[in-house]
Design goal:
Helices cover 46% and strands 14% of the residues. With 269 residues, it is of the alpha/beta class.
Length: 269
């Protein structure tokens, strides 16, 4: 074997962008990549005070991870993200397109505003940030990794999420399209499709906008959901962080254009 297991997963000296990395799944991803030695630019819309807590957890050892506040729905911000990364950390090796929103809405109630909001963040920002990232990686002549966070909803609609399902289906196909064209530059492109993961975004769904009855109903449904899952638990951000670390590492050198499902067995139910 050419490399030890330790070396395979060593990301020392690599620079990664993680969008939506201030909390939830993105935080789990940033944490794992930083543990493997990468320096991270967390890009998120939240106040720097919230991101500071995440950075404190991530920058434990010699790590130099930093924060950039930006709304990814505005395409003008995307080139600033790449420039900031190069100026502050000197390189770009890994892009993780994680930021995304999921608002429940029946197809009969779908609005143009919800569609545009969702698609601009979940799909358009992924396409154009990836375009800028691969151009930078090609210019630097060192290859790289793009890892998109799609969803089990890109494979099977779970209900009342049509705009989300369309965006995530798009992300999985975009992954394959990019992978096909940029493999020759040493750039691998894959997506991770999470199932139900315990995050602030998921917890917000059972938020104050629901009546007490609706909250009780949702809790019962969620208990039922967990019971029916083959692995009998919700996923944690760390579960997705582990999958992203694998795809970012040399252990995944021959993997591109694929979807890695991390769902506790949801899709085989
Ligand atoms: N949690 C799940 O069960 C689950 C399942 C499948 C897929 N996913 C996907 O995983 C990703 C993360 O989900 P999560 O549950 O951690 O969400 P979350 O809401 O807990 O966190 C999302 C992060 O993205 C940031 N963000 C939101 N809008 C932004 C914008 N316009 N610009 C920049 N940053 C923005 C938020 O501030 C937050 O830090 C999403 O793409 C989601 O679709 C989640």
């Amino acid at each position: 074997m050419e490399k030890s297991i330790e070396k395979l997963f060593d990301l020392t000296g690599k620079v990664a962008i993680v969008t939506g990395g201030a909390m939830g799944i993105g935080k789990g991803i940033a944490y794992r990549l930083a543990e493997a030695g990468a320096n991270i630019v967390i890009v998120d819309i939240v106040d720097p005070k919230i991101a500071k807590k995440t950075l404190l957890e991530i920058n434990k050892e010699s790590n130099k991870s930093i924060y950039l506040q930006a709304d990814l729905r505005d395409i003008k911000n995307l080139s600033k993200i790449i420039d900031f990364t190069i100026n502050e950390l000197g390189d770009l090796n890994i892009l993780v397109n994680n930021a995304g929103i999921y608002n429940y809405c029946a197809v009969t109630e779908l609005t143009e505003e919800l569609w545009d909001n969702t698609l601009n963040l979940n799909l358009k920002a992924v396409a154009f940030l990836s375009k800028l990232a691969v151009n930078k990686m090609i210019e630097k002549k060192h290859g790289g990794r793009i890892i998109n966070i799609s969803s089990i909803d890109s494979i099977k609609p779970t209900g009342k999420l049509s705009q989300y399902d369309a965006s995530k289906g798009g992300v999985s196909m975009l992954t394959k399209a990019f992978a096909k064209e940029v493999g020759k530059y040493g750039i691998n492109v894959n997506d991770v499709a999470p199932g139900g993961i315990n995050t602030p975004g998921i917890r917000k769904i059972a938020g104050p906008h629901l009546s007490l009855i609706q909250i009780i109903e949702m809790k019962a449904q969620s208990k039922q959901f967990i019971k029916s899952l083959p692995l009998k638990r919700m996923g944690e951000p760390e579960d997705i962080g582990n999958a992203v670390l694998f795809l970012a590492s040399d252990a995944a050198n021959y993997i591109t254009g694929t979807t890695l499902v991390v769902d506790g067995g949801f899709l085989i139910m």
